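Appendix B, Record 12. Input sequence as logged:
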Amino acid sequence: MKQSLRVIHGADFHLDAPFSALPPEKAAQRRGEQRELLRRLALLSNRAQADLVLLSGDLFDGGEIYGETLDALVEALSSIQAQVFIAPGNHDFWTTHSAYARKWPEHIHIFTEPAIEHVDLPELNCTVYGTAFTGPYREDRPLKGFQAPDDGKIHIMVLHGDVNPDSRYAPITREDLEESRLDYVALGHVHTCSGVQRLGKTSWAYPGCPEGRGFDETGEKGVLCGVVGSGGAELAFASLCTRRYLIQEVDVTGKEPEEALRTALPTEKSKDLCRIILTGERSSEPDLKALSALAAPWYYSVSVRDHTRLRRDLWKRAEEDTLTGLVLRDLKRRMEEAPSDEDRASLELAARFALAALEHREDPL
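Logged structural output:
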């Protein structure tokens, strides 16, 4: 009798996303790269000798699906040697006309009802539960009142939902999770990996999306991989993404923007998508078009944004007959008498913070 199971947990693939911020040819390429995720998922599952692959909804970005995408999904899932469970979400909700409404191999199980369904797997000493979205919104609490039986089996639920009691997307309360007494709740909907959380007996997690689609989905993306048993879940993050979305700040204070940007560029061409944000003080308006052209060869896609502020004369108010003038005069005198560059830099920073406080600003100049 199995006491633990090897599990892969993924969600929110959003296959066939429009990638509207990219040129059409790159958007099409990115959709093709999303399909490759499915092949890598299958390879990971088979190499890990997984017992279960849990896919917690939003595999598709919407109802309009390219034929190549459906072919890739069928091929990848069919090649997985584990039992596969899919809980359709708010983007790929179940209908009799959806992509899920086709004949699948026997090891692929798709939940089709808002009410909790279950599949018994006696060979794995396990019961897998799940529910489906049947429309773009779902305001009932899918876990409300549910409690797994204490029968010695491993109890797992696959669910697309939001751990937020006020959500319109299958709200889940922390009390619902704890009172369910499930060994693991495999969640989808949130695109950031939560890591494994625990409430009472119940472990739960969001794996996040396996491939970012914009700068609100930055960094490494992937799935969770590990072991689930009656004692809980031990799952680790496994990266699957082809490219990452990165946000990099470049401080131009005391430098020409071009010089500052050159020092921040990678030493080798990156396959990632990067948003460069210029920060700090500038003496003139930066040429964003020229800076973007400078950075373009180093990334798959790059944009440059200006968050700098125009440099002010720090000591301009030092001669005022005010508290501000008094403070600045004192700091300026101490700075001129400072014995080292380090001391002078510290006093200049102190003057900036002092002026910000005296002028009731949030940030130092």
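The chain has three domains: 4-239, 245-310, 313-365.
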